[in-house]
Protein backbone atom coordinates (compact mmCIF):
# COMPACT_ATOMS: atom_id res chain seq x y z
CA UNK A 1 0.00 0.00 0.00
CA UNK A 2 1.19 3.47 -0.86
CA UNK A 3 1.14 5.74 2.22
CA UNK A 4 -1.50 8.44 1.76
CA UNK A 5 0.98 11.30 1.36
CA UNK A 6 3.21 9.46 -1.12
CA UNK A 7 2.77 9.97 -4.87
CA UNK A 8 2.20 6.81 -6.95
CA UNK A 9 4.30 8.26 -9.78
CA UNK A 10 7.46 6.41 -10.85
CA UNK A 11 9.78 9.08 -12.28
CA UNK A 12 12.31 8.65 -15.12
CA UNK A 13 15.97 7.98 -14.30
CA UNK A 14 15.11 8.30 -10.62
CA UNK A 15 16.15 6.05 -7.75
CA UNK A 16 13.19 6.68 -5.45
CA UNK A 17 14.93 5.02 -2.51
CA UNK A 18 17.54 7.79 -2.57
CA UNK A 19 15.60 10.69 -4.00
CA UNK A 20 11.88 10.66 -3.33
CA UNK A 21 11.26 14.39 -3.02
CA UNK A 22 10.20 15.86 -6.38
CA UNK A 23 10.28 19.63 -6.89
CA UNK A 24 6.76 20.71 -7.73
CA UNK A 25 6.71 23.13 -10.67
CA UNK A 26 3.73 25.32 -11.47
CA UNK A 27 4.83 27.70 -14.22
CA UNK A 28 7.51 28.35 -16.82
CA UNK A 29 8.52 31.53 -18.59
CA UNK A 30 11.59 32.17 -20.75
CA UNK A 31 14.74 30.77 -19.18
CA UNK A 32 12.99 30.22 -15.83
CA UNK A 33 10.46 28.00 -14.16
CA UNK A 34 8.77 28.52 -10.83
CA UNK A 35 8.19 26.14 -7.94
CA UNK A 36 4.96 25.74 -5.97
CA UNK A 37 6.64 27.68 -3.15
CA UNK A 38 7.43 30.41 -5.70
CA UNK A 39 11.15 29.99 -6.14
CA UNK A 40 12.47 31.04 -9.55
CA UNK A 41 14.83 28.47 -11.03
CA UNK A 42 17.16 29.15 -13.97
CA UNK A 43 16.82 26.32 -16.47
CA UNK A 44 20.49 25.88 -17.36
CA UNK A 45 19.91 22.59 -19.21
CA UNK A 46 16.76 23.56 -21.13
CA UNK A 47 14.71 20.96 -19.22
CA UNK A 48 16.72 18.03 -20.61
CA UNK A 49 17.81 19.77 -23.80
CA UNK A 50 14.40 20.42 -25.32
CA UNK A 51 13.49 24.04 -24.56
CA UNK A 52 15.22 26.17 -27.17
CA UNK A 53 13.48 29.56 -27.28
CA UNK A 54 12.37 29.53 -23.63
CA UNK A 55 9.44 28.14 -21.66
CA UNK A 56 5.96 29.08 -22.89
CA UNK A 57 7.18 31.09 -25.86
CA UNK A 58 4.10 33.18 -26.77
CA UNK A 59 4.33 32.48 -30.51
CA UNK A 60 4.38 28.71 -29.93
CA UNK A 61 1.70 28.85 -27.22
CA UNK A 62 -0.64 30.75 -29.56
CA UNK A 63 -0.04 28.25 -32.35
CA UNK A 64 -0.93 25.39 -29.98
CA UNK A 65 -4.09 27.15 -28.77
CA UNK A 66 -5.31 27.88 -32.30
CA UNK A 67 -4.61 24.39 -33.59
CA UNK A 68 -6.22 22.72 -30.57
CA UNK A 69 -9.51 24.39 -31.46
CA UNK A 70 -9.33 23.33 -35.12
CA UNK A 71 -8.16 19.73 -35.26
CA UNK A 72 -6.29 18.13 -32.40
CA UNK A 73 -5.81 14.56 -33.65
CA UNK A 74 -6.38 12.63 -36.85
CA UNK A 75 -5.24 9.23 -38.11
CA UNK A 76 -2.18 9.89 -40.30
CA UNK A 77 -2.44 6.80 -42.52
CA UNK A 78 -4.49 7.85 -45.54
CA UNK A 79 -4.89 11.41 -44.17
CA UNK A 80 -2.81 14.55 -43.94
CA UNK A 81 -3.11 18.13 -42.71
CA UNK A 82 -1.54 21.54 -43.20
CA UNK A 83 0.58 21.67 -40.04
CA UNK A 84 2.36 18.44 -41.03
CA UNK A 85 2.69 19.41 -44.70
CA UNK A 86 4.06 22.83 -43.78
CA UNK A 87 6.55 21.40 -41.29
CA UNK A 88 7.78 18.79 -43.79
CA UNK A 89 8.18 21.32 -46.62
CA UNK A 90 9.96 23.81 -44.38
CA UNK A 91 12.24 21.17 -42.87
CA UNK A 92 13.43 20.07 -46.28
CA UNK A 93 14.41 23.67 -47.05
CA UNK A 94 16.47 23.91 -43.86
CA UNK A 95 17.96 20.41 -43.59
CA UNK A 96 21.08 19.36 -45.51
CA UNK A 97 20.34 19.29 -49.24
CA UNK A 98 19.58 15.79 -50.53
CA UNK A 99 17.20 14.75 -47.76
CA UNK A 100 13.83 14.41 -49.48
CA UNK A 101 11.28 12.58 -47.32
CA UNK A 102 9.99 13.16 -43.80
CA UNK A 103 8.58 10.49 -41.46
CA UNK A 104 6.91 11.71 -38.25
CA UNK A 105 7.03 10.09 -34.82
CA UNK A 106 6.85 11.20 -31.19
CA UNK A 107 10.24 11.09 -29.49
CA UNK A 108 13.95 10.98 -30.13
CA UNK A 109 14.02 7.25 -29.43
CA UNK A 110 11.27 6.50 -31.92
CA UNK A 111 12.94 8.68 -34.56
CA UNK A 112 16.06 6.53 -34.16
CA UNK A 113 14.05 3.29 -34.24
CA UNK A 114 12.49 4.56 -37.47
CA UNK A 115 15.96 5.37 -38.87
CA UNK A 116 17.23 1.87 -38.08
CA UNK A 117 14.13 0.28 -39.61
CA UNK A 118 14.45 2.47 -42.71
CA UNK A 119 18.08 1.41 -43.13
CA UNK A 120 17.37 -2.30 -42.67
CA UNK A 121 14.24 -2.05 -44.83
CA UNK A 122 16.28 -0.45 -47.58
CA UNK A 123 18.79 -3.32 -47.74
CA UNK A 124 16.08 -5.92 -47.36
CA UNK A 125 13.95 -4.45 -50.14
CA UNK A 126 16.82 -4.19 -52.62
CA UNK A 127 17.81 -7.77 -51.80
CA UNK A 128 21.22 -7.17 -50.22
CA UNK A 129 21.89 -9.08 -46.98
CA UNK A 130 23.34 -6.23 -44.94
CA UNK A 131 22.06 -6.14 -41.35
CA UNK A 132 24.88 -4.98 -39.10
CA UNK A 133 24.82 -1.53 -37.50
CA UNK A 134 28.07 0.29 -36.72
CA UNK A 135 28.04 2.54 -33.65
CA UNK A 136 30.40 4.86 -31.82
CA UNK A 137 31.64 4.19 -28.28
CA UNK A 138 29.89 6.23 -25.52
CA UNK A 139 26.90 7.01 -27.80
CA UNK A 140 23.36 7.48 -26.60
CA UNK A 141 20.40 7.03 -28.93
CA UNK A 142 17.50 6.38 -26.55
CA UNK A 143 16.09 3.93 -24.02
CA UNK A 144 14.01 1.57 -26.13
CA UNK A 145 15.43 -1.89 -26.81
CA UNK A 146 16.55 -1.03 -30.35
CA UNK A 147 18.15 2.27 -29.39
CA UNK A 148 19.82 0.71 -26.33
CA UNK A 149 21.32 -1.85 -28.70
CA UNK A 150 23.06 0.87 -30.70
CA UNK A 151 24.02 2.88 -27.62
CA UNK A 152 26.72 2.50 -25.01
CA UNK A 153 26.44 -0.65 -22.92
CA UNK A 154 26.69 -0.31 -19.16
CA UNK A 155 24.77 -0.06 -15.93
CA UNK A 156 21.84 1.60 -17.73
CA UNK A 157 21.06 -1.46 -19.80
CA UNK A 158 22.74 -4.35 -17.97
CA UNK A 159 19.39 -6.00 -17.11
CA UNK A 160 18.28 -5.97 -20.75
CA UNK A 161 21.58 -7.11 -22.24
CA UNK A 162 20.23 -10.52 -23.37
CA UNK A 163 17.72 -8.72 -25.62
CA UNK A 164 20.12 -6.25 -27.22
CA UNK A 165 21.24 -6.99 -30.76
CA UNK A 166 24.85 -7.25 -31.76
CA UNK A 167 26.59 -4.21 -33.28
CA UNK A 168 30.08 -3.21 -34.40
CA UNK A 169 31.58 -0.46 -32.25
CA UNK A 170 34.30 2.05 -33.11
CA UNK A 171 36.21 4.17 -30.58
CA UNK A 172 35.30 7.77 -29.81
CA UNK A 173 37.62 10.10 -31.82
CA UNK A 174 39.43 11.60 -28.83
CA UNK A 175 41.82 14.42 -29.69
CA UNK A 176 45.01 12.93 -31.10
CA UNK A 177 43.36 9.54 -31.71
CA UNK A 178 41.09 10.44 -34.62
CA UNK A 179 42.88 8.16 -37.08
CA UNK A 180 42.17 5.10 -34.92
CA UNK A 181 38.46 5.91 -35.13
CA UNK A 182 38.57 6.35 -38.89
CA UNK A 183 40.56 3.14 -39.37
CA UNK A 184 38.09 1.22 -37.21
CA UNK A 185 35.18 2.65 -39.18
CA UNK A 186 36.82 1.70 -42.46
CA UNK A 187 37.42 -1.85 -41.23
CA UNK A 188 33.82 -2.16 -40.00
CA UNK A 189 32.45 -0.76 -43.27
CA UNK A 190 34.44 -3.29 -45.29
CA UNK A 191 32.65 -6.26 -43.74
CA UNK A 192 29.97 -7.56 -46.08
CA UNK A 193 27.11 -7.22 -43.64
CA UNK A 194 27.65 -3.53 -42.74
CA UNK A 195 24.26 -1.83 -43.20
CA UNK A 196 24.54 1.57 -41.53
CA UNK A 197 26.62 3.72 -39.23
CA UNK A 198 24.73 5.75 -36.63
CA UNK A 199 26.40 8.71 -34.94
CA UNK A 200 25.74 11.83 -32.88
CA UNK A 201 27.40 14.57 -34.94
CA UNK A 202 30.00 16.79 -33.15
CA UNK A 203 28.80 16.13 -29.57
CA UNK A 204 27.97 12.93 -27.73
CA UNK A 205 25.28 14.17 -25.35
CA UNK A 206 24.38 11.69 -22.63
CA UNK A 207 27.79 10.04 -23.11
CA UNK A 208 29.33 12.99 -21.27
CA UNK A 209 29.17 15.97 -23.68
CA UNK A 210 32.22 14.65 -25.51
CA UNK A 211 33.08 16.78 -28.53
CA UNK A 212 34.93 16.13 -31.79
CA UNK A 213 35.56 18.36 -34.81
CA UNK A 214 33.61 18.64 -38.09
CA UNK A 215 36.65 17.36 -40.04
CA UNK A 216 36.23 13.93 -38.37
CA UNK A 217 32.49 13.89 -39.10
CA UNK A 218 33.20 14.71 -42.74
CA UNK A 219 35.79 11.94 -43.00
CA UNK A 220 33.43 9.42 -41.38
CA UNK A 221 30.80 10.27 -43.99
CA UNK A 222 33.33 9.86 -46.80
CA UNK A 223 34.32 6.40 -45.53
CA UNK A 224 30.68 5.25 -45.27
CA UNK A 225 29.96 6.52 -48.75
CA UNK A 226 33.00 4.76 -50.20
CA UNK A 227 31.68 1.45 -48.84
CA UNK A 228 27.97 2.00 -49.50
CA UNK A 229 27.19 2.03 -45.79
CA UNK A 230 24.22 4.23 -44.87
CA UNK A 231 25.08 7.20 -42.67
CA UNK A 232 22.53 7.98 -39.95
CA UNK A 233 22.93 11.31 -38.14
CA UNK A 234 21.20 11.31 -34.75
CA UNK A 235 20.70 15.07 -34.33
CA UNK A 236 18.06 14.62 -31.62
CA UNK A 237 20.22 16.66 -29.22
CA UNK A 238 22.57 18.50 -31.61
CA UNK A 239 19.80 19.92 -33.80
CA UNK A 240 18.12 23.31 -33.45
CA UNK A 241 21.14 25.50 -32.95
CA UNK A 242 22.86 23.68 -30.11
CA UNK A 243 26.18 23.34 -31.95
CA UNK A 244 26.05 26.89 -33.33
CA UNK A 245 24.43 26.00 -36.65
CA UNK A 246 20.83 24.87 -37.11
CA UNK A 247 22.05 21.29 -37.58
CA UNK A 248 25.51 19.97 -36.66
CA UNK A 249 26.00 18.26 -40.04
CA UNK A 250 26.10 21.66 -41.76
CA UNK A 251 29.49 22.36 -40.21
CA UNK A 252 31.00 19.36 -41.98
CA UNK A 253 29.04 19.95 -45.17
CA UNK A 254 27.62 16.44 -44.72
CA UNK A 255 24.27 15.22 -45.98
CA UNK A 256 23.38 12.10 -44.05
CA UNK A 257 21.35 9.36 -45.72
CA UNK A 258 19.00 9.46 -42.73
CA UNK A 259 18.68 12.20 -40.08
CA UNK A 260 16.77 12.21 -36.78
CA UNK A 261 15.47 15.43 -35.21
CA UNK A 262 13.35 15.81 -32.09
CA UNK A 263 14.01 17.64 -28.78
CA UNK A 264 13.94 21.25 -30.09
CA UNK A 265 11.59 20.48 -33.00
CA UNK A 266 8.62 22.05 -31.20
CA UNK A 267 10.84 24.49 -29.32
CA UNK A 268 10.46 22.13 -26.37
CA UNK A 269 6.70 22.53 -26.05
CA UNK A 270 5.24 19.18 -27.15
CA UNK A 271 6.62 15.77 -28.05
CA UNK A 272 7.32 15.30 -31.75
CA UNK A 273 10.11 13.84 -33.87
CA UNK A 274 11.00 13.38 -37.51
CA UNK A 275 13.24 11.05 -39.45
CA UNK A 276 14.37 12.47 -42.80
CA UNK A 277 15.80 10.33 -45.57
CA UNK A 278 17.18 10.40 -49.07
CA UNK A 279 15.03 9.40 -52.02
CA UNK A 280 16.83 6.04 -52.49
CA UNK A 281 15.54 4.85 -49.13
CA UNK A 282 11.97 5.91 -49.81
CA UNK A 283 12.20 4.47 -53.33
CA UNK A 284 13.31 1.08 -52.02
CA UNK A 285 9.98 0.91 -50.15
CA UNK A 286 7.93 2.33 -53.06
CA UNK A 287 6.27 -0.53 -54.88
CA UNK A 288 2.93 -1.96 -55.95
CA UNK A 289 3.99 -4.92 -53.83
CA UNK A 290 2.45 -4.25 -50.42
CA UNK A 291 5.04 -6.36 -48.63
CA UNK A 292 7.56 -3.56 -49.28
CA UNK A 293 5.53 -1.00 -47.30
CA UNK A 294 7.36 0.78 -44.49
CA UNK A 295 5.55 -0.91 -41.61
CA UNK A 296 5.82 1.69 -38.90
CA UNK A 297 3.30 3.90 -37.15
CA UNK A 298 2.44 5.30 -33.77
CA UNK A 299 -1.06 6.29 -32.71
CA UNK A 300 -0.20 9.99 -32.59
CA UNK A 301 1.97 10.15 -35.72
CA UNK A 302 2.19 13.82 -36.79
CA UNK A 303 -0.28 14.98 -34.16
CA UNK A 304 -1.67 18.28 -35.57
CA UNK A 305 -1.16 20.28 -32.36
CA UNK A 306 2.46 19.12 -32.05
CA UNK A 307 2.99 19.89 -35.75
CA UNK A 308 1.51 23.38 -35.28
CA UNK A 309 4.02 23.91 -32.46
CA UNK A 310 6.82 22.73 -34.77
CA UNK A 311 5.61 25.07 -37.52
CA UNK A 312 5.71 27.97 -35.05
CA UNK A 313 9.22 26.90 -34.03
CA UNK A 314 10.32 26.94 -37.68
CA UNK A 315 8.88 30.44 -38.00
CA UNK A 316 11.02 31.55 -35.07
CA UNK A 317 14.06 30.17 -36.89
CA UNK A 318 13.19 32.51 -39.75
CA UNK A 319 12.96 35.43 -37.36
CA UNK A 320 16.20 35.90 -35.49
CA UNK A 321 16.75 32.61 -33.62
CA UNK A 322 20.08 32.18 -35.45
CA UNK A 323 21.33 35.53 -34.11
CA UNK A 324 20.35 34.58 -30.57
CA UNK A 325 22.27 31.32 -30.96
CA UNK A 326 25.37 33.26 -32.04
CA UNK A 327 25.02 35.60 -29.11
CA UNK A 328 24.61 32.74 -26.59
CA UNK A 329 27.67 31.01 -28.09
CA UNK A 330 29.70 34.22 -27.63
CA UNK A 331 28.56 34.69 -24.02
CA UNK A 332 29.20 31.04 -23.26
CA UNK A 333 32.77 31.30 -24.59
CA UNK A 334 33.45 34.43 -22.56
CA UNK A 335 32.26 32.78 -19.34
CA UNK A 336 33.80 29.34 -19.79
CA UNK A 337 37.21 30.72 -20.85
CA UNK A 338 38.55 31.45 -17.32
CA UNK A 339 37.90 27.81 -16.35
CA UNK A 340 40.52 26.67 -18.88
CA UNK A 341 43.19 27.90 -16.46
CA UNK A 342 41.41 26.57 -13.37
CA UNK A 343 43.26 23.58 -11.92
CA UNK A 344 40.11 22.22 -10.25
CA UNK A 345 38.66 21.39 -13.68
CA UNK A 346 39.79 19.57 -16.79
CA UNK A 347 38.55 19.08 -20.37
CA UNK A 348 37.01 22.55 -20.42
CA UNK A 349 35.20 22.64 -23.75
CA UNK A 350 32.55 24.31 -25.89
CA UNK A 351 30.79 23.57 -29.15
CA UNK A 352 28.31 26.25 -30.21
CA UNK A 353 25.97 27.05 -27.32
CA UNK A 354 27.02 24.06 -25.19
CA UNK A 355 29.83 24.19 -22.65
CA UNK A 356 31.12 21.35 -20.50
CA UNK A 357 33.86 20.83 -17.96
CA UNK A 358 34.93 17.96 -15.74
CA UNK A 359 35.36 18.56 -12.04
CA UNK A 360 38.47 16.75 -10.86
CA UNK A 361 37.10 14.33 -8.34
CA UNK A 362 38.26 11.04 -6.93
CA UNK A 363 34.83 9.49 -7.39
CA UNK A 364 34.16 10.21 -11.07
CA UNK A 365 31.69 8.23 -13.19
CA UNK A 366 27.91 8.44 -13.48
CA UNK A 367 27.04 6.39 -10.42
CA UNK A 368 29.63 8.10 -8.24
CA UNK A 369 28.38 10.33 -5.48
CA UNK A 370 29.64 13.55 -6.99
CA UNK A 371 26.89 14.00 -9.63
CA UNK A 372 23.90 14.04 -7.23
CA UNK A 373 25.89 16.16 -4.73
CA UNK A 374 26.58 18.75 -7.41
CA UNK A 375 22.97 18.68 -8.53
CA UNK A 376 21.76 19.26 -4.97
CA UNK A 377 24.27 22.10 -4.53
CA UNK A 378 22.96 23.82 -7.68
CA UNK A 379 19.35 23.25 -6.64
CA UNK A 380 20.05 25.14 -3.41
CA UNK A 381 21.22 28.03 -5.62
CA UNK A 382 17.95 27.83 -7.62
CA UNK A 383 19.68 26.49 -10.73
CA UNK A 384 18.73 23.46 -12.77
CA UNK A 385 22.00 21.77 -13.64
CA UNK A 386 22.22 18.00 -13.84
CA UNK A 387 25.84 16.88 -14.13
CA UNK A 388 26.68 13.61 -15.87
CA UNK A 389 28.93 12.14 -13.16
CA UNK A 390 31.65 14.75 -12.67
CA UNK A 391 30.89 16.43 -16.02
CA UNK A 392 29.07 19.71 -15.54
CA UNK A 393 27.52 21.17 -18.67
CA UNK A 394 25.51 24.28 -19.50
CA UNK A 395 22.93 24.07 -22.30
CA UNK A 396 20.58 27.04 -21.82
CA UNK A 397 17.54 28.20 -23.76
CA UNK A 398 18.53 30.93 -26.23
CA UNK A 399 16.68 33.63 -24.28
CA UNK A 400 19.11 33.23 -21.37
CA UNK A 401 20.65 36.53 -20.27
CA UNK A 402 24.28 37.31 -19.55
CA UNK A 403 23.30 37.85 -15.89
CA UNK A 404 21.76 34.35 -15.74
CA UNK A 405 24.93 32.84 -17.17
CA UNK A 406 27.14 34.78 -14.77
CA UNK A 407 25.08 33.34 -11.92
CA UNK A 408 25.41 29.82 -13.33
CA UNK A 409 29.21 29.98 -13.69
CA UNK A 410 29.65 31.56 -10.27
CA UNK A 411 27.78 28.60 -8.81
CA UNK A 412 29.98 26.16 -10.74
CA UNK A 413 33.11 27.79 -9.32
CA UNK A 414 31.62 27.72 -5.80
CA UNK A 415 30.62 24.07 -6.19
CA UNK A 416 34.24 23.21 -6.93
CA UNK A 417 35.31 25.00 -3.73
CA UNK A 418 32.76 23.21 -1.67
CA UNK A 419 32.75 19.71 -3.17
CA UNK A 420 36.02 18.94 -4.95
C1 LIG B 1 17.64 12.45 -25.98
C2 LIG B 1 18.24 11.70 -27.10
C3 LIG B 1 17.57 10.64 -27.72
C4 LIG B 1 16.26 10.11 -27.22
O1 LIG B 1 15.26 11.06 -27.29
P1 LIG B 1 13.91 10.86 -26.40
O2 LIG B 1 13.01 11.94 -26.89
O3 LIG B 1 14.33 11.03 -24.98
O4 LIG B 1 13.40 9.51 -26.69
C5 LIG B 1 18.16 10.05 -28.81
N1 LIG B 1 19.35 10.46 -29.27
C6 LIG B 1 20.03 11.46 -28.70
C7 LIG B 1 21.32 11.89 -29.28
C8 LIG B 1 19.51 12.12 -27.59
O5 LIG B 1 20.21 13.09 -26.99
Structure notes:
- The protein is of the alpha/beta class and 420 residues long.
- The chain has 2 domains: 61-317, Type I PLP-dependent aspartate aminotransferase-like (Major domain) (Aspartate Aminotransferase, domain 2, 3-Layer(aba) Sandwich), CATH 3.40.640; 322-419, Aspartate Aminotransferase, domain 1 (Alpha-Beta Complex), CATH 3.90.1150.
- It is built from 12 helices and 16 strands.
- A 7-stranded mixed beta sheet has the order 4-12-11-10-7-5-6, with helices on both faces. Strands 1-2-3-15 form a 4-stranded mixed beta sheet.
- β2 and β3 form a beta hairpin.
- Pyridoxal-5'-phosphate (PLP) binds next to α4.
Mean pLDDT: 96
Q: What is the CATH third-level topology name of the largest domain? A: Aspartate Aminotransferase, domain 2
Question: What is the number of independent domains?
Answer: 2
Radius of gyration, in angstroms, nearest whole number: 21 Å
Bound molecules: pyridoxal-5'-phosphate
Please work out how many helical segments DSSP would assign.
Answer: 12
What class would the helix/strand composition place it in?
alpha/beta
Q: Write down the overall geometry.
A: globular
Strand order of the largest sheet: 4-12-11-10-7-5-6
Through-space gap between termini = 41 Å
Strand content: 15-25%
Pattern of helices and strands: EEEHHHEHEHEHEEEHEEEHHHEEHEEH
Can you tell me the residue ranges where pLDDT is under 50 for at least 5 consecutive residues? none
Find the CATH superfamily of the largest domain.
Type I PLP-dependent aspartate aminotransferase-like (Major domain)
CATH architecture of the largest domain: 3-Layer(aba) Sandwich
CATH level-1 class of the largest domain? Alpha Beta
User: Largest sheet, if any?
Assistant: 7 strands, mixed
Q: How much helix, percentage-wise, in residues? A: 25-40%
Amino acid sequence: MIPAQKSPIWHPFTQHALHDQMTRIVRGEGAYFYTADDRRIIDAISSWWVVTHGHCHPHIVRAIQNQAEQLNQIIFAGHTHDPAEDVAAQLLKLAPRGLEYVFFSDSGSTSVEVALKMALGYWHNIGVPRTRIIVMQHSYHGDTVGTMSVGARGVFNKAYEPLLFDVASIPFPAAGHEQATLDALEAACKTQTAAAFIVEPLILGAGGMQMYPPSVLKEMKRICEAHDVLFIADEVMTGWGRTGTLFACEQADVTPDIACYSKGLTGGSLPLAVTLCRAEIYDAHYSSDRSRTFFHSSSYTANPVACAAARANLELWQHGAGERVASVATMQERLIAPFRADARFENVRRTGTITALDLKASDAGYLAGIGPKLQAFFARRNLLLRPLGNTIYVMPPYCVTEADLVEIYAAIADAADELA
